[in-house]
Design a protein that fits this description.
heterodimer; A: 76 residues; globular; B: 373 residues; OB fold (Dihydrolipoamide Acetyltransferase, E2P); Chloramphenicol Acetyltransferase; 5-stranded mixed sheet; 28% strand; elongated
């Protein structure tokens, strides 16, 4: 799952896959602002076929947070 | 006892047609029960009971009554009398060509669940409400829910077209664009966002700063009534445009001046999610004193915003651009800027006021507090 999340991040924010590590977050790239975050959420929902809880979305700012959220949604 | 009166449904009419009573005289009703259907020139409106009690009908259906006129009441055993709060959650603005009235909440559910218009029409109801669609969904196998995107799109687009047409027809709009340098603001947002663990963006800051200056510019936070009279100095309830492919929405963030930047950013994010899902309540999209049009996709220079009636001003925000300038010692420096557009109603606002407004906003954004020099 982590690899797929990184692939989505790389595509949405137009960065090299190798530049994405565990600490990758909004501060890492300029275009990860509110609008960029929405593009990320839409791409993740499409890629993983999930629908995030609206109240959780603002917390999905790290690979771990995203992975945990997706795992939780898949488990339910 | 609570009175049932014709509410002020819109700013264009003074009367409404009492189409029908939804409940018979003498029937017990609960809060939220629809008791009557009202119709104006622009929409059909459901009147709900605000209290429990027995419905007493005082006016006949099929006649027009003035806004504020009493048409009945919900009877109680006690002698308490007060005017009911009559605001419906469901409002119609489209009438199907076959004479079916579909409430907005029902239309949203129809669009989101992909129900075909023919299926709705087969209900045989003259007025289709959200609860009718909910009942239909419960009875309907999922494979019958085929998307009818054309019908849904046309409905939404018709609503947008009406607003655009009305704006062009009623508002003599003027426009100015202000270049606002934003390096300091972007650094501030990054720093504050990192400290607070929040994502803070330029649109959040601009809405926040508009809230901060609203008292000094009452003409820009104003509405006009059906007679064209101005009601200025409204609270800083600011609409913001969001469109993620499910339609253009302009939800209103209330009392912006009372929110911290982080609180505002959170509201904006929630509205973004609602726009992405295409799920807003009517109540979230009314009551704006001024609106902001976000057009921040890369390379968007600016968009001339459309003033949303009955407001008097709309702000537009374009993308961030970079330019080079010569520093004090002749070296090349890069600085970033955005173009902020201000469309204003020339019936009430002139260029002088708009320049003052733009200059104040520019100064606040360019001089935003930052610990990074």
């Amino acid at each position: 799952m982590e690899a797929e999340i990184k692939a989505v991040l790389a595509k949405v924010f137009d960065v090299e896959l190798g530049a994405i590590d565990a600490s990758f977050g909004p501060g890492a790239v300029e275009n990860w602002d509110s609008a960029g975050h929405m593009r990320l959420i839409m791409a993740l929902e499409e890629s993983f076929d999930v629908m995030f809880d609206d109240d959780d979305v603002e917390n999905l700012v790290s690979i771990k947070a995203i992975a945990d959220s997706i795992a939780g949604l898949k488990a339910n | 006892m609570s009175e049932l009166v014709i509410p002020q449904i819109n700013n264009n009419d003074t009367h409404a047609l009492l189409v029908e009573w939804s409940v018979e005289e003498g029937v017990s009703v609960a809060p939220g029960d629809v008791v009557a259907i009202l119709e104006t020139s622009k929409s059909t409106f459901e009147l709900e009971a605000s209290e429990s009690g027995i419905l007493k009908i005082e006016k006949e259906a099929g006649e027009e009554y003035a806004f504020g006129e009493r048409i009945g009441y919900i009877g109680e055993e006690s002698g308490d009398t007060k005017v009911a709060v009559n605001s419906s959650q469901e409002q119609v603005n489209v009438q199907d060509s076959r004479g079916i009235l579909i409430t907005d909440a029902a239309k949203r559910l129809i669009a989101s669940e992909g129900i075909q218009l023919a299926t709705v029409q087969s209900l045989g109801k003259r007025i289709v409400r959200e609860k009718d669609i909910q009942a239909l969904l419960r009875a309907m196998p999922s494979q019958e829910r085929e998307p009818d995107p054309v019908a849904a799109d046309q409905t939404q687009q018709s609503a947008i077209a009406r607003v655009v047409t009305r704006s062009h027809r009623e508002i003599p709009a003027a426009f100015l664009v202000k270049r606002v340098y934003c390096d300091q603001a972007l650094a501030f947002l990054k720093e504050q966002g990192s400290e607070q663990g929040k994502m803070l963006s330029l649109p959040d800051l601009i809405v926040s700063e508009l809230g901060a200056i609203h008292e000094a510019f009452p003409l820009f936070f104003a509405n006009t009534d059906s007679e064209g009279r101005l009601k200025s100095g409204l609270p800083a309830n600011i609409g913001v445009t969001f469109d993620f492919g499910k339609g253009l929405f302009v939800p209103v963030i209330e009392s912006v001046s009372e929110l911290t930047l982080a609180e505002l950013a959170q509201r904006m994010m929630r509205f973004r999610m609602k726009a992405m899902r295409g799920r807003f309540k009517e109540s979230e999209m009314s009551g704006g004193a001024l609106s902001v049009s976000l057009n921040t996709d890369p390379d968007t220079v600016f968009v001339r915003p459309l003033i949303l009636p009955p407001q008097t001003c709309m702000i537009s925000l374009g993308a961030v651009f970079s330019e080079c300038q010569l520093g004090q010692e002749g070296e090349l420096e890069q600085r970033r800027f955005v173009n902020i557009g201000i469309a204003y109603d020339h019936r009430f606002i002139n260029g002088f006021e708009s320049q003052e407004f733009a200059a104040t906003l520019k100064k606040r954004i360019e001089g935003v507090e930052s610990s990074i020099s």
